[in-house]
Specification:
Strand order of the largest sheet: 2-3-1-4
Mean pLDDT: 94
Low-confidence stretches: none
Radius of gyration: 12 Å
CATH architecture: 2-Layer Sandwich
Bound molecules: copper (II) ion
Number of helices: 2
CATH class: Alpha Beta
Helix content: 25-40%
Number of domains: 1
CATH topology: Alpha-Beta Plaits
Amino acid sequence: MTAPEINEETIEIKIAGMSCNHCVQHVEKALLQTKGVSSARVDLASETAHVKYNASELSVEDLLKVIEDTGYEAVSAG
Ligand SMILES: [Cu+2]
C-alpha cells in the first residue's frame, strides 16, 4: 500500500521588506500553517527564512508564494 512519502528538505529563502519582529512572526506563522512545512525559522537581521518541508508535498515555488502572499518579497532560495 502507499504510505505518504516523506522527502524532507531544508532550504534558505531570502526575504525583503521585513522591518520588525512582527513581520518575522507573520511570515513564520504563514509558513508553519502551510501543509508540508515541518519547521520554519525566520531571522530578521539576515532577512532569511530557514524552512524544513516535505518536498513530496510542496515545491520551492509554493514556499516562495506563501511568503509573497504575506506581503513580503521572497528574493531567492538556495
Ligand atoms: Cu514589522
